[in-house]
Amino acid sequence: VVFASRRFVIEITDQLGRGAMFMPLNFTRRALDHQGASREISVTRRTDAQGLCEVWLSEGGFSLSAGAGADDSLAEVERSFVVDAVTPERLAFAVRRQSFGVRLLLVTRRGEPVPGCGFSVRSVGAESDLAALGCTDDMGRAVVELAVGRHVLHVAPAAGSPLEETRADLVVNERGEVSPERVEITVRVMDVTIFFVTPSGEPAEHCRCRIEPKESNGMSAMSVDSSHSGAATLQLACFDTYVLRIDDEDPAQEYEPLAWRFTVQGGT
Q: Which of 22, 143, 164, 239 is 20 to 30 A from 41, comparing alpha carbons?
């Protein structure tokens, strides 16, 4: 029986079942030429956006080598397989994804995002190997490409920054999940002066109010009096959000009730 070449669909996926897109493939086999000499036959293909490709193969043993191609997060791989009369027309091979794009959220102790925070990430066991370098967006988020394994995130603020130096251990598993996803960054407490003014622009003297964190977490409100200067200075944590309340519970209060939410920014 003469075994003619047959059409096969090759499927390349990573450990999550996602197609390895645009991956170069090389199929090689040893065969005898018409003089009986052994020679190597090679066929090259490239997977599509779904990790699939078509190839015509004849009977025999093949070696499949797959390179990283456009996606260098995939490990190169070599597989051996045999094509015969009962080989299914769809062949699936798995490759290992070595790194993933992971999302981190940098927050204060009360869960407020830390925007514009510069950071670096180094792989454990390779202190000289800088794995990632970046800065959080306006929502305190950062997306970095990290290899599977353990890493250390480091925030080293410049002089005068409202941030404290912080280190956090990160672990990326084989499914591309990072732990922890939320990293608490220590922030400095700073002196913040609040000026109280009337609608006409005059200092609002002896305006009594309460200031409390938006997320109190059991922290009691601070009582504030603007004194004769119409201003009050108190210590607040940078990037935290607070609520200032002027209410009418005090019969001696001459100012209208007010609820004002504000966030302390660096240099405020």
A: 22
